[in-house]
Design goal:
With 415 residues, the protein is an alpha/beta fold. It has two domains: 4-154 and 308-363 and 393-404, Rossmann fold (3-Layer(aba) Sandwich), CATH 3.40.50; 157-305, Rossmann fold, CATH 3.40.50. 33% of the residues lie in helices and 18% in strands. The chain is built from twelve helices and 13 strands. The strands form three sheets. The chain has a seven-stranded mixed sheet, sandwiched between helices. Strands 7-8-6-9 form a four-stranded parallel sheet, sandwiched between helices. 51% of the residues are buried.
């Protein structure tokens, strides 16, 4: 590489997103990049000229290992939708003037669906104006809903956390007995895709029966039928554990969380509604209808921040795709995203390719219908076969005084 590289992180963070950042940094330096800049808070920060020289923070191998083991976005993140090129050329002129000032040869953006929309628009503008800057997307999302890739870095660690947590919740739920039973509803992230909730099946094994019911947003949800199923289960067991996606909805398309009297009205820059309170609503409903004790548990950000339960496969692949993004840019690719291609399940083998980001941005990969039970209340063995290789191995935190040590950066001043 003859010029400099700049990298950003966007969207919801994960336990593996900084491993991709480490892969970008190391590979860019090895390929001869002069500097590797990090944009603070994604493309929005870049527009405000907020960036750092990563060599000021990553000085040795220990810093790289700390970075790989640190959850959340080291550089900070954002949810910012770039305008249509032809409606707001000034925004792109500003971004490219900053990139040119920094002598940027390649921009790498680590993120999910919305982030790939940013790569698509920037690469389109570069082609339109004859700019030689190359733009490559690096996949990241615990939602695992990016098209054309077998899975996304961040998902394996989140799945491992969910499987472990649900197993512990199940064990806890049988400690006390209640006259009319206990119903525990675990709310797991997933707006339209149920990859995370499906991972709750990982709790099932020789020492655990797993959750009793699993509901994904790929199948319409019927509140009345749900109550009937829970009631039937309580006739033969003292505890029922249900795992639901936050985005489950009725056949009319209404999110279950919106059935509550008080539901969030917040929407982000991409017009996504905030989904929260689904488990709480259903617990209130079940308690009212059946008179049993209920407990609502929202894993919320814990499932994407649990680096102490990170999957080794996930961390290694996150690092791998970060490096592959730099290699792709150095070899002349632009308007592309690195994808993971699975070659086999047992033994698990996976490689990388680059695909056209225009076929990925603003699309969603859902759980195949035949990986969900016919009645929509569980996942099949095919789902287990898919997810199990992604959670293998552990990455031990670097412990200091009994608590994991993370790498952090001081707030940078606006330039």
């Amino acid at each position: 590489m003859k010029g400099n590289v700049i990298v950003g992180q966007s969207g919801g963070p994960t336990a593996a997103i900084n491993s991709s950042l480490a892969g970008v940094y190391r590979t860019a330096i090895d390929r001869g990049a002069g500097k590797v800049y990090g944009m603070l808070h994604g493309i929005k920060g870049l527009m405000d000229e907020e960036y750092i020289d990563l060599s000021d923070y990553i000085k040795n191998d220990l810093d790289v290992e700390l970075l790989k083991r640190t959850p959340a976005a080291f550089l900070g993140s954002c949810r910012f939708k770039l305008p249509d090129i032809h409606q707001d050329m000034a925004t792109y002129e500003k971004i490219f003037s900053i990139l040119n000032k920094l002598n940027i040869e390649a921009l790498i953006y680590i993120g999910g669906n919305d982030s790939m929309d940013t790569i698509k628009k920037l690469s389109d503008y570069a082609i339109l104006t004859g700019s030689e800057i190359r733009f490559v997307g690096c996949p990241k999302t615990i939602d695992n809903d990016l098209a054309l890739t077998d899975h996304t870095p961040g998902y394996g660690s989140a799945a491992k956390y969910i499987g472990t947590s649900v197993k512990e919740i199940i064990r806890d739920s049988y400690c006390l007995e209640y006259e009319k039973g206990l119903v525990t509803i675990v709310e797991i992230m997933g707006r339209n895709a149920g990859w995370l909730t499906g991972a709750s099946i990982l709790a099932k094994g020789e020492d655990c029966g797993g959750p009793d019911l699993i509901y994904l947003p790929e199948v319409d949800f019927n509140v009345e039928k749900f109550k009937d199923r829970v009631e039937k289960l309580l006739k033969t067991q003292s505890s029922v554990v249900v795992c639901i996606s936050e985005g489950i909805h009725t056949k009319e398309g209404k999110y279950v969380c919106e059935l509550a009297a008080e539901s969030s009205k917040f929407v982000d820059a991409f017009n996504h509604k905030q989904l929260t309170g689904t488990a709480a609503y259903l617990c209130h409903y079940i308690c009212k209808e059946l008179g049993c004790k209920t407990r609502a548990i929202e894993l919320s950000t814990l499932q994407r921040a649990g680096s102490h339960l990170a999957s080794r496969v996930d961390i290694l692949e996150a690092y791998q795709v970060g490096g592959a993004a730099v290699l792709a840019a150095d070899e002349g690719d632009t308007g592309k995203m690195v994808t993971l291609i699975r070659h086999s399940d047992d033994p698990y083998q996976c490689g990388t390719e680059v695909k056209d980001v225009h076929k990925i941005a603003n699309d969603e990969k859902l759980v195949p219908r035949n990986w969900i039970s016919h009645d929509g209340t569980y996942v099949t063995e095919a789902f287990v076969t898919y997810v199990k290789p992604l959670i293998q191995g552990d990455v031990s935190p670097i412990m200091v005084d009994g608590i994991p040590r993370h790498i952090i950066r001081p707030a940078a001043k606006k330039r």
